[in-house]
Design goal:
- By secondary structure, this protein is an all-alpha fold.
- Helices cover about 35% and strands about 0% of the residues.
- It is flat and about 40 Å long.
Length: about 130
């Protein structure tokens, strides 16, 4: 956890582990390459991030995957980061005006498709894909 601002209880983390003694990382267990490929094929912009950052996205994904591992659950998990709403981006000043945006209907379609794909695909494909 490496937060640029304090959390809700006023603590500003600067490199703290999400769970003391936990592994350095967990891999998402959803078919993320298939999801991104199929979303793009359907006209929905999508790409893979190999790191959900060190802010709340990372903490949420790590926490879910850690609890799945600790409890021995037979479930899969991953993290889908959706863009900002266009009206939010339009109110921003430089450089934030360059952040991605998408309307709610398209975001909803993307998430529904990701759920459908995750339920149907057991093994993600391994070929290189568009990511950052």
């Amino acid at each position: 956890m490496d937060f640029p601002i304090p959390d809700n209880v006023g603590i500003q983390h600067g490199g703290n582990p999400v769970f003391e003694g936990g592994p350095a990382a967990y891999m998402a267990t959803l078919p993320v390459k298939t999801i991104a490929s199929e979303l793009r094929a359907s006209g929905i912009p999508a790409k893979i991030s190999n790191s959900p950052s060190t802010y709340l996205c990372n903490q949420m994904m790590y926490t879910v995957l850690h609890l799945i591992a600790e409890k021995g659950l037979r479930t899969r998990a991953g993290f889908i980061h959706v863009p900002a709403h266009p009206a939010f981006v339009a109110r921003q000043n430089y450089p934030f005006v360059e952040m991605p945006s998408m309307n709610v209907e398209l975001m909803t379609a993307a998430v529904k498709n990701a759920i459908r794909i995750s339920a149907a695909v057991n093994q993600d494909h391994r070929e290189p894909t568009f990511n950052y």
